[in-house]
Structures are given as structure tokens and as C-alpha cells.
Amino acid sequence: xxxxxxxxxxxxxxxxxxxxxxxxxxxxxxxxxxxxxxxxxxxxxxxxxxxxxxxxxxxxxxxxxxxxxxxxxxxxxxxxxxxxxxxxxxxxxxxxxxxxxxxxxxxxxxxxxxxxxxxxxxxxxxxxxxxxxxxxxxxxxxxxxxxxxxxxxxxxxxxxxxxxxxxxxxxxxxxxxxxxxxxxxxxxxxxxxxxxxxxxxxxxxxxxxxxxxxxxxxxxxxxxxxxxxxxxxxxxxxxxxxxxxxxxxxxxxxxxxxxxxxxxxxxxxxxxxxxxxxxxxxxxxxxxxxxxxxxxxxxxxxxxxxxxxxxxxxxxxxxxxxxxxxxxxxxxxxxxxxxxxxxxxxxxxxxxxxxxxxxxxxxxxxx
Length: 367
Known about the structure:
By secondary structure, the protein is α/β, with parallel strands linked by helices. The chain has helices spanning 6-9, 20-27, 46-54, 67-76, 89-101, 116-124, 141-146, 170-179, 193-196, 205-208, 237-246, 254-265, 267-290, 310-321, 346-362; strands at 33-34, 84-87, 107-111, 128-132, 152-158, 185-189, 213-218, 231-234, 302-306, 325-326, 328-329, 338-342. The strands form three sheets. The chain has a seven-stranded mixed β-sheet, with helices on both faces. A three-stranded antiparallel β-sheet has the order 9-12-11, covered by helices on one side. Strands 1-10 form a two-stranded parallel sheet. Helix 13 (267-290) runs parallel beside helix 15 (346-362).
């Protein structure tokens, strides 16, 4: 007898990148640089670390459900408290949103080759998920609109997209929203917002204040708080109010909220992180081009390298791994022929390009 429905039995779970400790143990390496998971190579804001230490003696109390962070975010982004929610990362909030708005018979639409976390959550819901084809590694908004039916309840857009780093610009988003039915919810996953917003044509979805748009953001990337799982979302008060009913009452935890509040105020740390990432994208992109690759232009904190096929990906991945550089093969994201490389510190980026150069001289890989 099985108690597990078929859509769960057949579900392919999200598989995170290899941790540094595992690579060191497997290959006997002292120095390993992890450029696989789009983390902040600078680490967390020192203010966030101090804030966590400052509340450790209060963890016998239940958290307040992110109330303090919601207040700070409402003030920072000039919205009402009723328009913002905090939770266990933007991915956790995405799960809450699905449980809140989806009903039997509802359908979701997104593009192939987007954030695998959404794909897992969508398929775990048991609802119908439709995938539009990408256009040169970019979200094809027209193709997504072609899949919308009267049963469509939710459209998921990651901007910039993970794992491609591509983004659609303001004019494209505006044309898209003109054609989206008002009863279809558009989820804008802006996990890499802090990096992308430097580009003048990037659409900050929050500024439009559409009633049928929910904006997801996170402290995991530019703020360096991936380990404490803290994110937030903006939306119409009816949507956010309903999400607050569904989420666990004490989410997020006290340590995560304290860290997020401190990180939010550390503007110098954020500025230096964004500047270092811009240097990293430039160094990696130019370095890969010089080595004969054709990296996809990225507005995030990683670069995607298309190769000849999955065999070439495996060969190159293992070759640079033996040199202590951990990257991310993208078969699980829908691009078996591609590899993703996150930006590191200036020194780590230089070491990465050197490792790729050495790997190419030692083995035959076709970009």
C-alpha cells in the first residue's frame, strides 16, 4: 500500500551544489573555492552577525512573525505594512503563495529553464504546470501569454532568471502586463534585484503597483544571509493578508529577522558587494570569451556557459573541480549542455579563470 500520490512519487527534488567539505574530503584538496550556488563570497554583513549574537539570549521567546522586519521594509520601500510579508526565504514565500491562491483545476505557466525551486514546488502542488520555450536563454513573454487559458491562475517570472542570468526590460514587461488578464497572478521573482537594478532599463516590479503582481525578494544573495533563510514579498493587501493566514505563525525565526534588519541598514556593505560583483561578472565574462566560450550576458551574480553537450559539461566540471573550483552543471535546470559559474572575490575569480585555462590545456573540451 502506498500513501504517496503519484505526483510526489515522481517528483525530482532540488539538489543543491556540492559543499566545500565534501569536495575537500573526496579529492584531498586544501583549497576549494565554491562558485556553484550564487552565494555572497564576502560573507554576511558584520552588522548582521553582531545582531544575531545580540538576540541569542532571547531565543527562549517565540518570534513575532517577522513584524519588525515588515515594518522596516514597509518604511524602506514606501508601502503599507499590509502589503509586505517576511518568511523563510523567497522560495518559502513562494510555497506559501501557492498554497494560498491555487485551487483544484488551476494552472500555472512559466518558461522552461527557470529556477528549479519553482518547478519543484509547482509539481509538488499537483496542479498543471505549462512550460513555454525560452528564446535564446531569455523568458519569451509572448510564448508565455500564448499558454494562458481561463484556468491559468499564476504566471511565474524570474527576472533576472536563474540559471541563465538573462532579464527582460521595462518596455517588455509593460507590454506583457497590458495583455495579462487581471485575474491571473504574476509572480516576479527578483532574487537578484540588487545586482540588476543598476541597469537603467531593468523593471522594478514594485514601482508599478499592479494589483495582480507579487514581488519576491531575498536576503540570501547580495545581503549574504543564505544560511538563515530570510526573504520577503510585496503585494496587494488581500493577497498578503491571505498569505499571513496560511504561513506558519512564528516564521521567520528571531535570528533571521535580527540579521535581516541589520543587513538592511548596512548600505555600505551592500554597495561594496554590488561593485565587487560587477567586477566579477566582467572578469569572468571576458576571461571565458578569451578562452573560446560564449557566456550568456548576465545581470545577476553568475555566468552561464553553454557547451557542446552534456558530456562536455561533465568533462569540464570534473577538470576544474580537481583544481578546487566548484561550479554547477545545469541538467537539473533544463540545460544539460551548460555550466553555471557564480562570481567570487577578485582573487577567486582570477583563480577560476586560471583553473579553466589549465583544464582546457589538459583535456579536450568543445565550448
